[in-house]
Write a structure and sequence with these properties.
It is a single chain. The protein is α/β, with parallel strands linked by helices. The protein has 3 domains: about 80 residues, Winged helix-like DNA-binding domain superfamily/Winged helix DNA-binding domain (Arc Repressor Mutant, subunit A), CATH 1.10.10; about 100 residues, Periplasmic binding protein-like II (D-Maltodextrin-Binding Protein, domain 2); about 100 residues, 3-Layer(aba) Sandwich (D-Maltodextrin-Binding Protein, domain 2), CATH 3.40.190.10. The protein is built from 12 helices and 14 strands. The mean pLDDT is about 90. This is DNA-binding transcriptional LysR family regulator. Keywords: DNA-binding, Transcription, Transcription regulation.
Amino acid sequence: MQIKNLISFVKVAQLGSFHAAAKHLHSSQPAISARINSLENELGVQLFERDASGTRLTTRGQQLLPLAQRMCSLQEDIKKQLHDVLPERGVARIGVSDTLAHLWLTELLTRWQETLPLMEFEISVDVSTNLHQQLMRHQLDLAFIVGPKQSDELCSEPLVEYPLCWVANPELAKTLIDNKQSSLNLQSLVEYPLLSFPRNSLPGIQLQHALDNAHIEQARVHSFSSISNLLPLAEQGLGIALVPEAAASEALGAGRLHSLNVSPSPAPLPFIGCWRQDDERHLAPLLNQIATEIIEPGAPKTE
């Protein structure tokens, strides 16, 4: 059960409005709704009734509220106690997978600096496999990578899950759809170059497995470690890209890319926060907790 879902639940209950809760938490109303839906699905109960007169707690919601408030209060106590024993100065070495850096690095660094204004932050943006190796070699204090964790020497917490989607520029998407009356499949795509993440990444491995299962041997797969390089190439029509939908949301919304319905659908990317169990600085859990309060299933809200 994620604490940010409980925080959102408590704030909606206190303010009586999803919109007001989103504004107070510096988030978006769809993001708050998604958190509440996730909490309701996890608990198997309805927590709010919404109608023309407003938003009200159900009986189950009323039962949960004092428990959730205690959990939120405990979280604040934990953060305060951890903060009290944290070094005021020093270097925090943080690894961030490229997708999360593309979406959230500005918000993360802003909040980390507000919390620890005298701390220096050394950020490494790389693919998850490399960041995991750096964490195991004591070269990082904390890493945000694709899960699950690969060692019992590490602590981890779930962070966010991002669906993957196939995208192409409008001209290429129209050609594909016009040439295929039924739903698209991998065989429909391999006439063109495929753009994806490195072969040793989870998306790269999943793509190769899908090609093998479809008995496709002649696919041309171009690999990129940076989503910031991959997306413009797809926009220019140099290939069909397999990317996290959230990372492509701006280009999709602007019409520079179109999403393709391709069967089979790729599995989503599960991201985790990960740090060493033998870390004695107590820094990673606090920075990870801040990240869980910021990172959402979709793209960042733009004003």
